[in-house]
Amino acid sequence: MAADAADLSRLSLNTATTKAWTLREAVEGAARAGLPAVGLWRDRVHEVGLAAAARIVADAGLRVSSLCRGGFLTAADDDGIAAALEDNRAAILEAATLGTRELVFVVGGLSAATAPGGPAAPYPTGGTASGGPAGDPARDVVATRARVADRIADLVPFATEHGVRIALEPLHPMFAADRAVISTLGQALDLAAPFPAEAVGVVVDTYHVWWDPDLERQIARGGVEGRIACFQVCDWILPLDADPLLSRGYMGDGYVDFATTTRWVRDAGYTGDVEVEIFNQQIWDTAGDEVVATIADRYRRHVLPHLT
Amino acid sequence: MAADAADLSRLSLNTATTKAWTLREAVEGAARAGLPAVGLWRDRVHEVGLAAAARIVADAGLRVSSLCRGGFLTAADDDGIAAALEDNRAAILEAATLGTRELVFVVGGLSAATAPGGPAAPYPTGGTASGGPAGDPARDVVATRARVADRIADLVPFATEHGVRIALEPLHPMFAADRAVISTLGQALDLAAPFPAEAVGVVVDTYHVWWDPDLERQIARGGVEGRIACFQVCDWILPLDADPLLSRGYMGDGYVDFATTTRWVRDAGYTGDVEVEIFNQQIWDTAGDEVVATIADRYRRHVLPHLT
Fold first, then answer.
1. Identity of the residue in A139, A177, A257 whose CB atom sits nearest the CB atom of B140
2. CB B238 to CB A304 under 8 A?
3. Which residues sit opposite B271 in a β-bridge?
4. Which residue, among B236, B176, B248, B234, has the nearest Cα to B204 in the 3D structure?
5. Which of A79, A228, A305, B59 sits between 20 and 30 A of A128, alpha carbons compared?
6. Candidates B131, B255, B305; nearest CB to A130
7. Cα separation of B99 and B93, whole Å?
8. How far is CA B238 from each of CA A144, A291, B253, rounded to the nearest angstrom?
9. Dihedral sign for Cα atoms in the order A13, A17, A18, A24
10. pLDDT by residue (tens digit) across A180-226?
């Protein structure tokens, strides 16, 4: 198959994949390789400033497929809740300024998490007493999820007002304790259900959801409901990296069945961009242009044939 | 609370927790600590021989809460299928001889897995051709699960004939590629559904299922259907161990909300044993009697108050 630019008309480079690149370098690198879009991370945007970031993308003629990331909505205390709402309102304004409708939300973990990937905080004194009351609220995943639902409701009017959609991202269950208490696509769609599809959507990231026995049905549901906001692709690699967050790989290097998953997303009517978001130290240590070329090659081999 | 034996009337020591102990040592250690039951692994049974193992347990006056493990049903080739059926029929006979009804099944991973925890096999030549046919059958998790269903159907008559129940264990999704394509309790119950509850049940292991947003509902369903064959407890520890299989910890050292989960299992009508199964190098390096004492202490603090 000829490597013409049209092949890449839906391929987006997420800036987390080329971590060593500044936002300008990533935008120019994507454009150079014939990619029409980038997925941006807020830290990269903040480095150059919001207005400059928007101008860099526009000048290159690219679109922004999504902004990563809002969320972290699980605080139980008033100060924590206020801080989360303030930060997410800022993220919504940033997404609007950057011209993307999709703001990816990673919703946060349990209060017992001392840090992402860190050990659980000890039980409060008395909380484990034999015959005592309920367990530790900091480990109560049901209550934590209820707080996420409350915060989404808080943010929907502001997001809607600015034409931005909250795109809920289920993370792999191995991150449920410390990073995101949304673990499945079905759960994300349930949380989105009370709100219009234009206000709250979901992210399908192959790394996080490939294992889900309910995946085909939930992708189809996401299509029917018009809520698939973002399709992110990368592979599930074993052995896991010492930091499991970095265990992602190029499509084709791991276990994900991209043929089947891509067809499910296609059949759900998704016509948006396909973002490649890979956290991987070895890839981060590789020259950016080489990374983008590999991404384009793997996309053509493993995703594109099943996308249309 | 007094540490009387009655407190421990449902606590079972899984022999994987005290890995340095022989079967006899584990049985005698459990009995010494006042535990009424053990969960046995086949390798420990084979070391002493089946008849001797059964006698050791009976002589100590203990019961066998479960036998681990059958399964590994995902082979696609005739020889692999025949070997899996043969090994599982042997496991069924062993369970019957040991006097336990519950044979835990870990169903196996994708054919692309080169080893548990190992990298994915490369794609077959041509399988990734642009515009080519479907992806790689060795990565097809849907077809792999269908083979699991077929093998369960093959084994049910033999298991029923010997009064043994196939107890399907959902493993944490981080093991879906290489160890078990059953990842949720709901999926396990769906696979069990075509068969009588006496023939096919499910395992609830807190380590594997704690994160599941559908857990409460599926535990309740397991109760209504009479299929909860085994309740295993241990904690979800972060950071993950270099070998994630060994990331388990004593109840109370990690993120699991034992109060809530135990109540769900209780409310589902489960009245069986509570097995403690922990794979953890540090615990394996600790003297067995100390491990059993710690298990009993943690059980009394985190599980027992919510069990009745």
1. A257
2. no
3. none
4. B234
5. A79
6. B305
7. 10
8. 19, 31, 10
9. positive
10. 999 999 999 999 999 999 999 999 999 999 999 999 999 999 999 99
Nearest residue to B76 (alpha-carbon basis) of B129, B146, B9: B146
Length of chain B: 308
| Contacts across the A-B interface (CB distance below 8 Å) | 166
Q: Inter-axis angle of helices B23-32 and B288-298, to 10 degrees?
A: 50
Best residue in B174, B179, B256 for a mutation probing chain A (most A CBs within 10 Å): B174
Contact with chain B for residue A141, Cβ under 8 A: yes
Which member of B178, B183, B216 has the closest CB to residue A213?
B183
Pair of tokens at residue A50: 């919001």
Q: At what angle do helices A215-224 and A185-192 cross, to 10 degrees?
A: 30
**Cis-peptide into A36, omega within 30 deg:** no
List the end-to-end C-alpha distance of chain A, in Å, as a whole number. Answer: 15
CA angle at A87 for the pair A82 and A91, rounded to the nearest 5°: 145
For B251, the token pair is 């109840």
Residues from chain B contacting residue A139 (CB–CB below 8 Å): 255-257
Residues in A touching B306 (Cβ below 8 Å): 135
On the question of pLDDT at B114 being above 50, the answer is yes
Give the whole-angstrom CA distance, residue B164 versus residue B96: 6
Residue closest to A110 by CA, chosen among B49, B256, B280? B256
User: Exposed/middle/buried for A61, CB within 10 Å: 0-12, 13-18, 19+?
Assistant: exposed
| B contacts of A190 (beta carbons < 8 Å) | 213
pTM: 0.96
Residue B263: cis peptide before it, omega within 30 degrees of 0: no
Q: What are phi and psi of B234, to 5 degrees?
A: -170, 170
| A250: contact with B, CB 8 A cutoff | no
Q: Is the pLDDT of residue B223 over 90?
A: yes
Please name which of A110, A79, A88, A10 lies closest in space to residue A42, comparing C-alpha atoms.
A88
pLDDT of residue B23: 97
Flag whether pLDDT at A126 surpasses 60: no
Verify whether the Cβ–Cβ distance A113 to B239 is below 8 Å. no
- In a 3-state reduction of DSSP, which class is residue A273? coil
Determine the Cα–Cα distance for residues A239 and B191; give it in Å rounded to an integer: 28
Of B140, B176, B211, which has the smallest distance from its Cβ to A260's Cβ?
B140
For an interface test with A, which of B142, B233, B257 has the most A Cβ atoms less than 10 Å from its Cβ?
Answer: B257
3-state secondary structure of A103: strand
Closest CA to A23 of A38, A33, A11, A35: A38
The DSSP 8-state label assigned to residue A260 in this structure reads: H
Reported as half-sphere exposure (CB side, CA atoms, 13 A), residue A146 has a value of 6
CB neighbours of B231 closer than 8 A, spacing ≥ 6?
B203, B204, B265, B270, B272, B273, B274, B275
Contact B211 A136 (CB under 8 A): no
Find the helix or strand (DSSP H, E) in which B13 lies.
strand B11-14
Q: What percent of chain B has pLDDT over 70?
A: 95
